[in-house]
Design brief:
Rossmann fold, alpha/beta, about 675 residues, 6-stranded mixed sheet, elongated
Length: about 675
Amino acid sequence: MNAGPSLAARLAAVRAALALAVGQRLDPVTAPAPTDDGLDGVVRAAGLTPFERDVLVLAAGCELDPGIAALCAAAHGDPGRRFPTLGLALRVLDQPHWDAVLPDGPLRGLALVDLDPGGLLDVRLRVEESVMLAVVGLDPVDQRLAEFADPRAAASVRAVTGSPAADTDSTWDSEPDAGPGVTAGELLPDAHRELLEEAAVRWSGGALALRGAQHADRVAFVRALAARLGARRWWHLRDLPVDSLERQGLARRLVREERLTGAPVVLEIDDLGDTGLRFAARLADTGARVVWSSASPRPHLPAPRCAVDLPPRTLAENVELWRAALGPRAAGLGRQVERLAGQFRLPVDDLQEAAGLVGDAVGDAVGGEAAGSPRPCGQPGGRTTRGSVGAELWTECRRRARTGLVGLAERVEPAATWDALVLPDRERAQVADVLRHARHRATVHERWGVGRTGGVSALFAGPSGTGKSFAAEVVARELGVDLYRVDLGGVLSKYIGETERHLSRLFDAAEAGGALLLIDEADALFGKRSEVRDSHDRYANIEVSHLLQLMDAYRGVAVLTTNLRGNLDDAFLRRLGFVISFPFPSARERRLLWEQAFGPAVPVGDLDPVRMAQLTLNGGSIRNVAVHACFLAAERGGPVQMADVLAGARVEYAKLDQPLTPGELAGWAA
């Protein structure tokens, strides 16, 4: 292909100007022709003057046309200087002006050209590869930008109940496969789609403050907004250079990208410190389209040009997203679609991919059940039914929801069962209430509109070893959700604002799967809130208030544990849905704990649970004693005997620095 008329003409004009300057007669052009002409678009987007346009052509021409490089060497009078300079450009090109060399002018301010260190007029004038490729009509990804930012594809929006709102070509990068019945494009809830149309009209540049509790919804909105604005991609800034000069260079390249391609720049300002916030503000001051993405409004930033507050997806909207992703096969899952929608708020990409993975199985299940002959499902002798397909989809959603929580909390595989939970009747009924509220939260709060729309919050209070963590495992297992243990030591920070950011990131990530969050030793953060005597007291109270707000809005189950209920603030306790006390186990409860202390595979002798219950131990200590007894039996090569249990008890009591009383030893063999 030949170069377009603009680039070809300007290359010829620059070549002629150089030849005239050195008194040479031009030879026929034999340089390889570029594929397409993007010069006019670059000139318009950057607002270049004719002289600035020709300076850019001169710098690019040395790479595109060896004849121009040779003419530059002749103009310098040095065969080794086969490159342009600003001084040479001012001397030989038409309509020169000194404004073109200013650092904040479009040539240098947008990093269309760079200068070698050590001077201004007589040093090498360079053009970056991505700029040169843009000049010849290509759409390259700037690899220097990719060191700190990720280029992500735009996607035309598709309303879940209508036709696409935009048909912008989004083939710049491959999008995840859509589920059955979904055309290529972004699925957005109707409320988000309306906000998208408003933002596309109102936002012409500067900062757009995009706020929403769910990070996945913000990403989907930006992806659709970029396409709605005609961009093929957007840049997600993931890191900032440490060096201030490198940050300036990054800012120039981001603004250049936005000017040339329309690609917005997205900064997750919840993750930025003071330096990052200043960078975000200065970047927006350039007039480039910059998105400040956050869960809630952030202080210390100027007023944005435009603000969008994304409401959380409602249950009805999430149901429609699932039905749109599954297409006609949604009918095969029946009410399970609503159960999935009530539990999971997956990113749209994950939702569509999960629907696609099990799509064929849904069809097989429906067809098989209708014919009365269910088909095999993965394992020999297995059967594909609506229930089994729904369980597979549930498991797949749990797996995908875990991604965002990696590194934020410890995942615990819940193995405890309801039958193994030993508590007094009243406390056991309270745990059952927690389960009931969690199971039907979506129906009562969202479908019926009764009560607040958050999830279930509970405090499990009692001495160590009384079953608080065990009960949390039971709840997670019964609900079929993941359990994450949160270490408050890793969340609390001495730096102002860091604790809130850590907590927001944790709850935001957990929202996708509605995981059960188990926050141990809650009194470390939720102790008696002090009167404000200094800035530390004030910020400590802010941290508590922030977590209470997160818990109120969280759709899943948040369980906090404490050994010292009396240390907790009464105002905090009133904000919780349940406060359950875990008492020291009675003799009856200790007997039940001993009866299940040894698993079915453990060989046991003539054990007496009633006598073992004389030991005043809690559930955690009983497990420790049982484990020690098993090791003694394994060493001896026989079954667990009462003597092994007594030996284990002596070890446990010594660890607790407590004596075994005569009453506890009554009836035991010496």
